[in-house]
């Protein structure tokens, strides 16, 4: 298993997904008349609220001529810890605000470190909160009505800083029905980097509005990585444990 596979599995283990009572959100009354302040307020109202989650997650990714798909089990305690386990516990990972750790029983290796490699992989600086927000359909940068301005393009709101940062540009597209993010994009023109997260569909899970299908596109120069997520079988707010221990004798890998 390539190193990229470990990192992708680790990165994408933070997502909240569907359950038996899940339904895809579609239709509704369109409202394209909100001010920036009103739009950000409506978006904040739709933020998911839960303590723990447990689910299965299908991850498909393509890089160049290589394509891979995995289904993993994961558990999460919001804002605190992420635990994931591939089939037969061949690969396990533990993600916290302080570090990223995973091990692989196939080649007896493990990694412990910070978010630098994940940031390099997706072309923008990441931490636990940003990754969690990305996977929950929340803005990876704080939304402040004093710092942002809104415009309308066809069937979506466009939210962007009044003054873009020097090194990178940020854009958010918001749905005019449920006011969740449809797409968030971070570009670094000088570095030829672009990160785009498209939320293709949302679903209602125990009265929470959560992503159902996400497409992540990371471009750096001529290299492109595409990651598709499909979320299945979630349970919320159960008492969960997060067993994780790197086996003795495993070799540490450096990134």
Could you please describe the fold and organization of this structure?
This protein is mainly beta and 255 residues long. It has one domain (3-231): Lipoprotein localisation LolA/LolB/LppX (outer membrane lipoprotein receptor (LolB), chain A, Clam), CATH 2.50.20. The chain contains four helices and 15 strands. The chain has helices spanning 3-11, 36-45, 116-122, 128-136; strands at residues 23-24, 52-63, 66-77, 81-85, 91-95, 100-104, 109-113, 148-153, 156-161, 169-174, 181-188, 193-205, 208-220, 223-236, 251-252. The protein has a 15-stranded mixed sheet that branches. The longest helix is centred in the first third of the chain and has 10 residues, at 36-45.
Report on the biggest sheet: 15 strands, mixed
Number of strands: 15
Mean pLDDT: 84
* CATH H-level homologous superfamily name: Lipoprotein localisation LolA/LolB/LppX
**Secondary-structure element sequence?**
HEHEEEEEEHHEEEEEEEE
The end-to-end span amounts to 15 Å
Residues in helices, as a percent range: 10-25%
Secondary-structure-based class equals: mainly beta
**Spans of 5+ residues with little confidence (pLDDT < 50)?**
1-7, 11-21
InterPro entries: DUF4292
Pfam families: DUF4292
Signal peptide: 1-20
Keywords: Signal
